[in-house]
Amino acid sequence: MTIRLKLPPLCDLEERLGSSADSVSKMAYHYRSTVEREVGLSGFPHEEGAESARLAVLRLLEVDAAMSQRDLSRALGISLGKTHYVIHALLDRGLVKMGNFRRSDNKLAYAYVLTPSGIREKVRLSRLFLARKEAEFRSLKQTIDLLRREVGRGGGGQ
Question: Using one digit for the tens of pLDDT, what is the confidence trace for 53-81?
């Protein structure tokens, strides 16, 4: 399954929004919310620490291998330093390989491509994430059912 991510290049957003600090934060918010909507990453970076960050990066790189570390950082809402750390951990483990290419502005850039073991790791992490979310859902459902029973016993007051 291939997901086509329709994100405007960050340079286009910068031109539209300007380069003030407020505009940059608006741009980062727009970029992140678009990623969350298109790829379904809502909630990933801050839950379960490094494991979820690795999964989020693997998912994004599968969609767009040409994303820079800065683009990944903005899209995930994590610091550039943490993004750098996660990328290098993935490179060190052989889950991602790095290649050079020339951008349209003729500058040298990198592409981070998932290796076969990176794809397997993404699937493994996705399964773990799904199992956690399903358990969380069951727990929330039980809590909601309990609260509904309590409210039902409380009668028609207030």
Answer: 899 999 999 998 888 899 999 998 889 99
